[in-house]
Amino acid sequence: MLNPGSLKTRLALEAPAETPDGQGGVVRSHAVMTTIWAAVTPLSSRQDEAAAAAGAVVTHRIVIRSNFEVTLRHRLREGDRIYRIVAIRDQHDRRYREILAELRLD
Question: What whole-number distance in Å separates Cα of residue 30 and Cα of residue 94?
Fold first, then answer.
């Protein structure tokens, strides 16, 4: 059983948003839907080279209460840190959601 007191990290839940650019296209960004409390635990890291930029990717386990609708299109933000959601599953009789997310460090 998860201790609710372990949800100590405040994260912003962001959803993709499109805004018209005035020239027939759109500007893609993310908008904050809500802020949530979470338990964030780093699991593993690896070196990554994307678009000729070397960096590290750290995989995290993030646990939140299940009363928030989260999909793979959402992302989580903690200040300048942006967590890309890779997988989501319910746990503890669907009272909590476990999210597997990646944080890129450049």
Answer: 27
In the structure encoding, which two tokens stand for residue 39, read together?
Answer: 């338990």
CATH number, domain of 80, equals 2.40.10.270
Distance CA 88, CA 21 (A): 33
Closest CA to 67 of 93, 100, 94, 92: 94
Judged by DSSP in three states, 27 sits in strand
* Phi and psi, residue 26, nearest 5°: -135, 155
- Domain assignment of residue 21, given as a range: 4-105
Domain total in the chain:
1
pLDDT (tens digit, 9 = 90+) per residue, 26-69?
A: 999 999 999 999 999 999 877 766 655 667 888 999 999 888 88
What token pair was written down for 71?
């999909």
Distance CA(93)–CA(79), nearest Å, equals: 31
- Beta carbons within 8 Å of 1's beta carbon, 6+ residues apart: 92
